[in-house]
Specification:
Layout: H1 2-6, E1 14-18, H2 24-37, H3 41-48, H4 61-71, E2 82-86, H5 90-97
Parallel strand pairs: 1-2
Helix pairs in contact: 2-3
Length: 98
């Protein structure tokens, strides 16, 4: 496990688990999902993606990047072996539904 191998050398190992990001991949998938469902693109977005998230919006890349910048900073020296969610509330929503 990488975290165990690198901790003593001052190297941290973490994972950023991001939610849906406003990106080309999602923009290309939404029209296909809408056609498949017989809905509008907005309805497909709400049904397939935003309905599972508290913020009800796509994340922007800078929100994920801000977490990466923090993890690379001295302020995150004690943060290692962690999975940090930048999801807009997807994991909270999932746990509440279960």
């Amino acid at each position: 496990m990488a975290v165990l191998e690198t901790t003593q050398d001052g190297i941290t190992v973490n994972a950023i688990m991001n939610g849906p990001v406003c990106a080309e991949l999602i923009e290309k998938q939404l029209p296909k999902l809408a056609k498949q469902d017989g809905t509008t693109v907005e309805e497909a977005l709400n049904h397939h993606i935003l309905g599972k998230q508290w913020k009800k919006r796509l994340l922007v890349p800078s929100e994920i990047a801000a977490t990466a910048v923090f993890l690379a900073s001295d302020g995150a020296e004690a943060t290692t072996g962690e999975g940090i969610g930048v999801t807009g509330g997807m994991f909270v929503m999932k746990k509440m539904i279960q």
